[in-house]
Amino acid sequence: MLASSHALARTGLDAAALKPAECDVRQAHSMPFETVTIDYEGREHLPDTETLRELAAEKNVLMTVPVRADGFDPLGDDSLFGRLPDGVGTVFVAGHSAYLTEDERSRAIAPRLGAALERSPDGWVGTEGIERVATATGATQFELLSRSTTRDVRALRAAGFDGTVAVYAPTVLTDDEDAILDAVGAYVARRKPVARAL
Question: pLDDT at residue 90 above 90?
Fold first, then answer.
Protein backbone atom coordinates (compact mmCIF):
# COMPACT_ATOMS: atom_id res chain seq x y z
CA MET A 1 0.00 0.00 0.00
CA LEU A 2 1.20 3.48 -0.74
CA ALA A 3 2.06 5.06 2.56
CA SER A 4 3.77 8.30 1.66
CA SER A 5 4.53 10.84 -1.01
CA HIS A 6 8.19 9.77 -0.56
CA ALA A 7 7.30 6.34 -1.97
CA LEU A 8 5.64 8.04 -4.94
CA ALA A 9 8.66 10.22 -5.60
CA ARG A 10 10.91 7.13 -5.64
CA THR A 11 8.71 5.27 -8.11
CA GLY A 12 7.56 8.14 -10.31
CA LEU A 13 3.94 6.99 -10.06
CA ASP A 14 1.35 9.67 -10.67
CA ALA A 15 -1.87 7.64 -10.60
CA ALA A 16 -3.32 4.50 -9.06
CA ALA A 17 -5.49 1.74 -10.48
CA LEU A 18 -7.89 0.10 -8.07
CA LYS A 19 -9.43 -3.33 -8.41
CA PRO A 20 -12.89 -3.23 -6.82
CA ALA A 21 -13.02 -7.01 -6.36
CA GLU A 22 -9.97 -6.70 -4.11
CA CYS A 23 -10.42 -3.40 -2.27
CA ASP A 24 -12.89 -0.71 -1.31
CA VAL A 25 -12.38 1.93 -4.00
CA ARG A 26 -13.20 4.63 -1.44
CA GLN A 27 -9.62 4.11 -0.23
CA ALA A 28 -8.71 6.42 -3.11
CA HIS A 29 -9.82 9.38 -0.96
CA SER A 30 -6.75 8.91 1.23
CA MET A 31 -4.28 8.18 -1.57
CA PRO A 32 -1.80 10.89 -2.58
CA PHE A 33 -2.81 10.79 -6.25
CA GLU A 34 -4.82 13.20 -8.36
CA THR A 35 -5.79 10.45 -10.82
CA VAL A 36 -7.38 7.09 -10.05
CA THR A 37 -8.41 4.40 -12.51
CA ILE A 38 -10.98 1.83 -11.43
CA ASP A 39 -10.71 -1.50 -13.24
CA TYR A 40 -13.80 -3.32 -14.46
CA GLU A 41 -13.83 -6.74 -12.80
CA GLY A 42 -17.35 -7.79 -13.64
CA ARG A 43 -20.74 -6.20 -13.22
CA GLU A 44 -21.05 -7.41 -9.61
CA HIS A 45 -17.99 -5.34 -8.62
CA LEU A 46 -18.96 -2.11 -10.37
CA PRO A 47 -18.91 0.69 -7.77
CA ASP A 48 -22.23 2.42 -7.22
CA THR A 49 -22.95 5.83 -8.74
CA GLU A 50 -22.71 7.73 -5.45
CA THR A 51 -19.29 6.28 -4.63
CA LEU A 52 -18.03 7.26 -8.09
CA ARG A 53 -19.55 10.73 -7.77
CA GLU A 54 -17.85 11.31 -4.39
CA LEU A 55 -14.49 10.18 -5.77
CA ALA A 56 -14.86 12.36 -8.87
CA ALA A 57 -15.49 15.39 -6.65
CA GLU A 58 -11.94 15.02 -5.29
CA LYS A 59 -9.97 13.13 -7.95
CA ASN A 60 -9.62 12.69 -11.67
CA VAL A 61 -11.44 9.33 -11.93
CA LEU A 62 -11.30 7.00 -14.92
CA MET A 63 -13.29 3.77 -15.23
CA THR A 64 -12.23 0.95 -17.54
CA VAL A 65 -15.23 0.11 -19.70
CA PRO A 66 -15.27 -3.18 -21.66
CA VAL A 67 -17.09 -2.33 -24.88
CA ARG A 68 -18.16 -5.96 -25.46
CA ALA A 69 -19.77 -6.42 -22.02
CA ASP A 70 -23.53 -6.28 -21.57
CA GLY A 71 -24.33 -2.94 -20.00
CA PHE A 72 -21.39 -1.17 -21.66
CA ASP A 73 -21.94 -2.32 -25.25
CA PRO A 74 -22.53 0.88 -27.27
CA LEU A 75 -24.11 -1.20 -30.05
CA GLY A 76 -26.34 -3.20 -27.73
CA ASP A 77 -27.14 -3.19 -24.01
CA ASP A 78 -25.59 0.05 -22.76
CA SER A 79 -27.60 0.31 -19.53
CA LEU A 80 -24.55 0.56 -17.23
CA PHE A 81 -23.29 3.78 -18.84
CA GLY A 82 -25.95 5.56 -16.80
CA ARG A 83 -24.18 4.48 -13.59
CA LEU A 84 -21.13 6.54 -14.53
CA PRO A 85 -21.72 10.07 -13.23
CA ASP A 86 -20.52 13.23 -14.94
CA GLY A 87 -16.89 13.76 -14.10
CA VAL A 88 -15.92 10.08 -14.41
CA GLY A 89 -13.80 9.52 -17.51
CA THR A 90 -13.60 6.31 -19.46
CA VAL A 91 -10.88 3.97 -20.66
CA PHE A 92 -12.50 1.82 -23.33
CA VAL A 93 -11.10 -1.70 -23.42
CA ALA A 94 -11.85 -4.88 -25.32
CA GLY A 95 -12.37 -6.55 -21.96
CA HIS A 96 -10.47 -9.49 -20.56
CA SER A 97 -12.08 -12.86 -21.24
CA ALA A 98 -12.02 -13.62 -17.50
CA TYR A 99 -14.77 -11.02 -17.05
CA LEU A 100 -16.79 -11.71 -20.22
CA THR A 101 -19.32 -14.38 -21.14
CA GLU A 102 -18.81 -16.53 -24.22
CA ASP A 103 -21.34 -14.41 -26.12
CA GLU A 104 -19.62 -11.17 -25.09
CA ARG A 105 -16.20 -12.51 -26.14
CA SER A 106 -17.56 -13.19 -29.65
CA ARG A 107 -18.54 -9.54 -30.29
CA ALA A 108 -16.57 -7.40 -32.74
CA ILE A 109 -14.33 -4.88 -30.98
CA ALA A 110 -13.54 -2.23 -33.61
CA PRO A 111 -17.09 -1.00 -34.30
CA ARG A 112 -17.80 -0.89 -30.57
CA LEU A 113 -14.69 1.19 -29.88
CA GLY A 114 -15.73 3.59 -32.62
CA ALA A 115 -19.25 3.91 -31.23
CA ALA A 116 -17.96 4.31 -27.66
CA LEU A 117 -15.63 7.14 -28.70
CA GLU A 118 -18.48 8.87 -30.54
CA ARG A 119 -20.34 8.83 -27.26
CA SER A 120 -17.30 9.89 -25.18
CA PRO A 121 -14.75 11.57 -27.49
CA ASP A 122 -12.31 12.22 -24.62
CA GLY A 123 -12.19 8.54 -23.67
CA TRP A 124 -8.91 6.67 -23.58
CA VAL A 125 -8.40 3.28 -25.25
CA GLY A 126 -6.73 0.31 -23.60
CA THR A 127 -4.35 -1.24 -26.11
CA GLU A 128 -3.88 -4.75 -24.72
CA GLY A 129 -4.55 -7.28 -27.47
CA ILE A 130 -5.92 -4.65 -29.88
CA GLU A 131 -2.92 -2.41 -30.50
CA ARG A 132 -3.60 -1.63 -34.17
CA VAL A 133 -7.28 -0.90 -33.64
CA ALA A 134 -6.51 1.23 -30.58
CA THR A 135 -3.95 3.29 -32.48
CA ALA A 136 -6.37 3.81 -35.36
CA THR A 137 -8.82 5.54 -33.02
CA GLY A 138 -6.34 8.37 -32.35
CA ALA A 139 -7.47 8.40 -28.71
CA THR A 140 -5.12 8.44 -25.72
CA GLN A 141 -3.45 5.03 -25.65
CA PHE A 142 -3.58 3.24 -22.27
CA GLU A 143 -0.71 0.78 -22.55
CA LEU A 144 0.75 -1.87 -20.26
CA LEU A 145 4.43 -1.25 -19.51
CA SER A 146 6.58 -3.92 -21.13
CA ARG A 147 10.13 -4.40 -22.31
CA SER A 148 9.13 -3.03 -25.70
CA THR A 149 7.23 0.06 -24.52
CA THR A 150 9.99 2.55 -25.33
CA ARG A 151 10.48 1.04 -28.79
CA ASP A 152 6.71 0.85 -29.38
CA VAL A 153 6.14 4.50 -28.46
CA ARG A 154 9.04 5.61 -30.67
CA ALA A 155 7.53 3.62 -33.53
CA LEU A 156 4.15 5.28 -32.97
CA ARG A 157 5.78 8.71 -33.08
CA ALA A 158 7.78 7.84 -36.19
CA ALA A 159 4.56 6.74 -37.90
CA GLY A 160 2.93 10.08 -37.10
CA PHE A 161 0.90 9.33 -33.97
CA ASP A 162 1.11 12.49 -31.89
CA GLY A 163 -1.54 11.64 -29.32
CA THR A 164 -1.05 10.87 -25.66
CA VAL A 165 0.28 7.53 -24.43
CA ALA A 166 -0.48 6.69 -20.79
CA VAL A 167 1.59 3.78 -19.50
CA TYR A 168 0.49 1.61 -16.59
CA ALA A 169 2.25 -1.09 -14.62
CA PRO A 170 1.12 -3.39 -11.82
CA THR A 171 2.86 -2.11 -8.71
CA VAL A 172 2.80 -3.11 -5.06
CA LEU A 173 4.93 -1.00 -2.72
CA THR A 174 5.90 -3.40 0.02
CA ASP A 175 8.83 -5.56 1.06
CA ASP A 176 6.53 -8.45 1.99
CA GLU A 177 6.97 -11.06 -0.75
CA ASP A 178 3.74 -12.86 0.19
CA ALA A 179 1.77 -9.61 -0.14
CA ILE A 180 3.34 -8.99 -3.54
CA LEU A 181 2.49 -12.49 -4.77
CA ASP A 182 -1.07 -12.21 -3.48
CA ALA A 183 -1.52 -8.82 -5.12
CA VAL A 184 -0.15 -9.61 -8.57
CA GLY A 185 -0.55 -13.39 -8.84
CA ALA A 186 -3.97 -13.44 -10.48
CA TYR A 187 -3.02 -10.48 -12.67
CA VAL A 188 0.07 -12.27 -13.97
CA ALA A 189 -1.88 -15.48 -14.55
CA ARG A 190 -4.28 -13.62 -16.88
CA ARG A 191 -1.52 -11.95 -18.91
CA LYS A 192 0.70 -14.33 -20.84
CA PRO A 193 3.34 -11.75 -21.87
CA VAL A 194 3.82 -10.76 -18.23
CA ALA A 195 4.03 -14.39 -17.11
CA ARG A 196 6.61 -15.15 -19.83
CA ALA A 197 8.73 -12.15 -18.81
CA LEU A 198 8.82 -13.40 -15.22
Answer: yes
